[in-house]
Structure formats: structure tokens, C-alpha cells
Amino acid sequence: MQKPVLRAILFDKDGTIIDYWRTWLPINRKVALFAAGQDAALAADLLRLGGQDPETGRVVPGSALAAGSIRDIAEAFAQHPRITLSRSLEAGIDRIFAQGGADHSVLVPGARDTLVELRQRGFRLGLATNDSNAGLAASLADHDVLPLLDFTAGCDAGFGAKPLPGMVNAFATAVGCSNGAIAVVGDAVHDLAMGRAAGAGLNVAVLSGTSDHDDLAPYADLVLDSVADMPAHDLFQAPA
After folding, report:
1. Chain-centre distance of CA 161, in angstroms?
2. What is the pLDDT of residues 76-92, one digit of tens each?
3. Domains of the chain, earliest start first
4. Where on the phi/psi map is residue 110: left (φ > 0), alpha (ψ -120 to 50), or beta?
5. pTM to 2 decimal places
6. Which residue of 52, 117, 157, 175 is surrounded by the most CB atoms within 10 Å?
């Protein structure tokens, strides 16, 4: 791979900046219980449809609960004959995720320090998520991360959801650089597929989320354990 000339970095949120396992597993259960009308057996079925094992907590990489939008999760639940896809279902899921993120979100160790360091080096930073704009803001509000970002976009920001390229295109416009000068960083195939569809200069997989090395390596130019490894890598020493 030819060394890319990077000026900006677009991060995923959950599993990349926010610790997926410590933050979202209990909230996924609350969402399923809400959709099930507090019927525990039905909620367990909905978790399975969304990609989470209700007993072990294991989440299937690339599943709706791992990487999907609010709409994706609602559609997964609506595969059950007792659940009807509706605006109220989506709104309730969004509300619980936003409140849960505000109350319980935990950052990946070293994530904020990484953002501070990369910003000090001169990189323009953004965040793109399949969570909603409200959920994005709520889950990061207490971590002093939002002021470090030049751009944020949720799945309802008007740029489309991952794996479509719209959020990368919008970030490039916002910070005034080409797509080829952007590194996309994420823990799911959706993130890397978005970067490839947009022609990002570098697609970086991190293993801090729901996917393992074998899931991500075919789609990544670089695989790291977490974003905390970025400042030491020679690709992120200073922007071009």
C-alpha cells in the first residue's frame, strides 16, 4: 500500500470511541424489553433477532445491535410476528439509547487522549455513527469529547447511514479536504465499507468492538488493537 497523505480522520463512535461492551449490552436489553412490552421471553427473542445472545451477551459482528441504525434495529425486531414496525417503535428505541448513553457511556481506554493528541498535531477530526444525532450527543456529552471534533453526523443527519459513503463526503466538505486525505477508523465492516465506498485514503480497523481480526482485515488497510495505538503509528504523526 502506498503511504496515504492524510489531513483528517473520521471515527466511528460505538466500539471505537465508546466502549461497546460496558456501555451497550445492558441498554440493548432495555430496548428489547421496551419493544416486547416488558415480556422477558419475547425480549430474549428480540435480542436474538438483533444479534445479541440473551444469555451470554455475545453480539454478532455486523448485526443490527452491533452496527445498525435505529431503523435497522427496529426492522430486526419486526421480523418477530408479534412486533410491528412503526414510528413509535423507532422513536422508543432512539429514546432509550439516547438516555442510556447519557447515563452509562464509558470511553474506550485512551480514546480521549488520542483525540487530544491528534488534534494537537493538526489533524481535523470527525465522528460518524449509525446512532442518531441525539444519541451521539447524549453519549458523548459528559466526556469532553465533542469540543475536539470538527464534524459529527448520526444516521439521521441527512447524509445516509453506513455503509453508504455520504458521511465521509460530508466530512470532506466540512473540513475542506479530498476524500483521499481522510482516514476512516472503525470497529465494524460497515465502517470500512463506508470508507471504501467513499474512496477514503486509509481504512483503519480497531479490535475494541464487536468484530475480530479475521472479520475486519479483508476490508482494512491497517488493523490496530484500539484508537489508543494511533498516536504512536507513523501514519498519524502530522497531517500533510
Report:
1. 11
2. 999 999 999 999 999 99
3. 8-19+107-236 (3.40.50.1000), 21-104 (no CATH)
4. left
5. 0.91
6. 52
